[in-house]
Amino acid sequence: MPDSMTKKGGFITLFFISAGTLSGVMLSGFGWLANLIVYLVQEFNVESINATQIANVVHGCINLLPVLGAIIADSFLGSFHVAAISSFISFLGMILLILTAKLSSLKPPPCEIGSSFCRAPSKLQYVVLYLSITTASAGLGGSRYTLATLGANQLDKPKDKETFFNWFFFTVNASSIISSTAIVYVEDRISWALGYTICFAANFIALAVFLAGQRFYRCDKPQGSPFTGLLRVVVAAVRKRKVLLSSRSEDYYHEHCETSKVMPVTENGWFRFLNRAAMKTEGDIDSDGLIARPWKLCSLEQVGNLRTVIRLVPIWSSGIFLITPVAIQSSIAVTQALSMDRHLGSNFKIPAASIIVVILVSSSFFVALFDRFVFPTWQKLTGRPLTLLQRIGIGHVIIVLSMAISAMVESKRLKTIQDNKLEALPGAIVPMQVWWLFPQLVVIGIGDAFHFPGQIALYYHEFPASLRSIATAMVSLVVGIAFYVSTALVELIRRLTGWLPGNINSGRLDNLYWILVTAGALNFMYFLVCAKLYKCRNIEKDVDANSGFDI
Hints:
Layout: H1 3-6, H2 12-33, H3 36-44, H4 48-77, H5 79-102, H6 123-153, H7 158-189, H8 192-212, H9 226-239, H10 300-338, E1 340-341, E2 343-344, E3 348-349, H11 357-382, H12 388-419, E4 430-433, H13 438-462, H14 468-496, H15 509-533
Parallel strand pairs: 1-4
Antiparallel strand pairs: 2-3
Helix pairs in contact: 2-6, 2-7, 2-8, 3-4, 4-5, 4-6, 4-10, 4-14, 5-6, 5-8, 6-7, 7-8, 7-11, 10-12, 10-13, 10-14, 10-15, 11-13, 12-13, 12-15, 13-14
């Protein structure tokens, strides 16, 4: 390894990247994101269902942007520059959010509780609001996972990297919990401007700490996006669609010359057509044995990489509607909490947005419980561990169960509303404790503890080594798509039914939850079919020696 590489990196950089920058970025980002629905409803007179729709779109953007950030980092700028630019963009977004909270000219007059008429924001107010949310979202989405990549690049030993990722996710969860409680409490009980100023300060400190540690970082040069290699296989296969396939290994281009590392040719399967991309034809190879036309010839290893991605797509797609109900429930739970009794004693009132902390705490607790006790005990009793697909499947079932609990709790809430004749009073507080929402949120956390680690581990182990960086992006991508699907689904139900009016106290949210139960059950059956057809490769075998690309 070059001296320049050995002199930089190491655990000292984690103080700057994880303890300083990541914690500050997450405190800042989740400080405004966790309370966004309440801010839109109370300060901008946005109807509760519309506010949840906006929040779902924002969550979708934040979870899709890491994919774009990873591509830019790998192809052009590197992880350090993407993280720095994203943190600065988030910094600008926080300035705009403070202005929307501080200046009365940038928001409509407050709406009285029980009033049927509330003044909507002007076009200018909407423009400033959406610009601030967009800027802050872009910064948060672009920096979060890029910091994970940069941090892992500072370490050499696989065990050290595993330790870093454990602390990375701990920092994310801890910062989210603090933001969703302490900062949200300041926003609700003191002032929005002060809460956003705290987020601004956290972002400023994070950026300053990150830049201060620059001289210690090991910054890898961009190597090009792995997505380009996958696209080259498709283009090359199409361009050679008339070439006859051969069964001889020497007719294909291999990255490795050693016999032990040569990728075997797939003789049958649904995607045998892709083998044409690796077929050697005249003019494809230079005199030195290298590829002369990269968009007409690929290695058999690259073809295998694309096969692996395609084989995982069905299981990956089942995760979209696994997370969609959670996205809907997480947003609507905040609007439900706004209409319920949130008093803890006579002097303390739980902020509505803090209700989501129940999911974070539940998920963190059960991840540790499963990892340290449940899974080892299961392996001792049965003689074999739970497979990754089994863990994901259990997560499916538990998420469906949480939707059923949500439907029953909402039915009770609506009955309480009818008994007290509150249907026609927008913003009225239902005489029902917010604790009723806790069971469904705890169950969601249990489901997340099963399926999220299971999905990450599945993609990491099943993807070829050259595509490992895409593994975490796959999870982020499915979460982002799920939030957009949830937005479209809620809007569709609003148009076709009268279940989701602006005043949720006169709606039928319970029917929405029962639809999610049905859709979740159907999605679980789809997952079972995909899991049955999919054959996991043995991750204990050497990747290069494994032929597992037959479908």
